Amino acid sequence: MRKQALPLYPSSLFHDSSDLWDNGAVNISGDIIDIHVHPLEGGIETIPGQIRSFEHYGRRTGIRRFCLLGHVCLAGYDPTLSQVRALNDQTIAFVERRPDLFSGFCYLNPRHSPRALEREFHRCVSSGPLRGVKLWVAVNCTDPKVDTVFHLAEAASVPILHHAWYKTVDLAFNESSPADIAQAAARFPGVTLIMAHLTGAGVRGILDIQPHPRVLVDTSGSQPANGMVEYAVSKLGPERLLFGSDASGRDFSVQIARVQSSRISEKAKRLILGGNAANVLRLGDDDG
Amino acid sequence: MMDREISPLFDINVAVGRWPFQPLEPATVSRLARHLERQGIAWAAVSSLDAVLYQDPQWGNLPLLKALENQKSLLPACVINPSMAHWKESLRVCHGKGCRMVKLYPNYHQYSLGSPEVDALVSECDERDIRLAIAFRLEDERAHYPLMKVPATSLDEIVQVARRHPRIPFVLLCPYHSEVPRLSQETQNTLIEISHIESLDTLSSLLNLIPASRVLFGSHTPFLYTGAATAKLKDAPLPAIDFRRIGHQNALRLFRHGLSGTFFLQPPASSL
Fold it and tell me: What is the pTM of this model?
């Protein structure tokens, strides 16, 4: 009996379209929305120059809208109330000057009092132009301190974009893992949670959030690890991935190439690169 | 298809084979060759992934050398572990079968770049006209398998070995942006490849730290999406001369024109 040669290894276990490696990836052009962007530098006085820079990057890369999350690193892991306000003031200024180019999320530190959190949320989101909440590492998302923020987001029907990472090195302050995100999602099933950093989450993190349909993941950050977009699409569906760059720490073009280079359908790429974010941000025809 | 003005490319950092923690594509030499050609990559230095973790790297090197015999645009690079007793014989055999570059993984093979065996290897490679590459890492340290955490190769040791052998060009694989300043300022004979370099305006920012003459195009295929590396070149607002240097001229100069044997410098017609 003629023996059949075994494949080098069963790549179909990893993603469903291994044949696409023989056919080549399909690049798409068109409207891109970047859900995970930090300002290029600090200070409201720098905004006019930064806007020109973002316009330049937009023309070069096809990004038509940048969702600003604040320059969170500048204020440290555990920012004060005034630091949070200053950071959000900058985000608001960007959005108010160019609502056609920028969306923004309100950065909050759940270690602040519930009253302070409510005040800042109402200022920025309920009464302001921002369309979501950004949480970083000040508090782990399994800590009950986050409850006020989650209740506010749920009541206003706005998403929370939450940093998460699986690390085999030291964690940053109260950094959350994808398993923590899954726990929070189980406690607040009515909240749309965007888990940041697909490659940081990795295979395990994708599986952690898979049972929670309102948990999405952004593609931002880390090296453009081969196969991770394909794996996430196969486990979550393309509707649950959002393109993000994590600029200004990362390169817009490189992060877009992560999605463009992946072996998924053209339709899936369009959803990831802009369609899903437009839904999450509730962008209408007059939003640019 | 790659823009004509920055193709053809020479990719100094490509591997093929098996990795225990995930299946990586392209998984075969033939698929790899087609993939690289579609990316506008006319030449690549290719090593065996298997050779990194096999107890004897030759178990990975020799099958790869065989598979590359008919791949005129793929330059064989072999993994050598100078802490093993047979490293000289391994090098001799690999050289005889067409190897033009040696890759060192001191972190995965647990030896110091300060050891006398490394100095002996450097000299041997020089005599055989084999280029030397040293890998900082293979994967992001934050994402290593928890039972196999491998620290990056020591930047101090890399600087020291480069300074002990100032006439030898050392190709450094997978450095981070933060590791470039010391390499640029404290050595003159190191070249870095760009696969793990990323910041806003990656190449413009990088060329503020190191001249284009010391930068090589590298993708770290199959660990990273090849297109992410080509995107660094494609969208960079650099003069055409720097594109050509980084894209292929520096690498071709490194391996010197007019090599005989299995390495041909004419790119496939379809990639021009």
Answer: 0.90
